[in-house]
Amino acid sequence: MEYNFFALISRMKYIDRWALMRNNREENLCEHCLEVSMIAHALATIGNVRYGKTLNAERAALIGLYHDASEIITGDMPTPVKYYNDDIKTAFKDVEDIACHTLLDKLPDDLRPAYEPIFFKDADDENDVYLWKLVKAADKLSALIKCIEETGSGNTEFSSAMGTIMNSVSQMAETYPEVNDFVCEFLPAYGKTLDDLQQI
Length: 200
Fold this sequence. Notes:
Layout: H1 5-9, H2 29-51, H3 57-66, H4 71-74, H5 79-82, H6 86-104, H7 112-119, H8 126-152, H9 159-175, H10 177-185, H11 194-197
Helix pairs in contact: 2-3, 2-8, 2-10, 3-8, 8-9, 9-10
């Protein structure tokens, strides 16, 4: 038997993000998921080290790697459309769930149980629900970083998006101390030059 799961996942590199906007530098889904994975791992680690949480940081990283995998099938739906109203939001969530199941169906039966928890949270596990919220926060932080980089290179196309996403991140920072710590300690470095970043 041949299985298509990983060949499909590898096509994340062909999905461009921010398709409705002029980009100084194109960003594909593969790049975005890597960044979300690293930030999600950092948020979970901050929670464990500083706030006495018992979060699985490696699981956070894995969820981040696959969090937008459904877009291989659905494409990247622009945020203004995706969240236009509750009906569209709910309908698109259903489409995303179907796309995730479609991807999981491309695995051998014996491997699928190992991958399914990466695509769907355990609503009965309080720690897992919290972990998925941190991955969502990592997703927003990645989008904010993209806006910082684009506006920093003179692209005003991202100015409005940056304000909207900054508001979302600020609200998350009020609820999740891990997000607040990342924003205060790590976010200011984005947009610096390579020489500045290498300074002791």
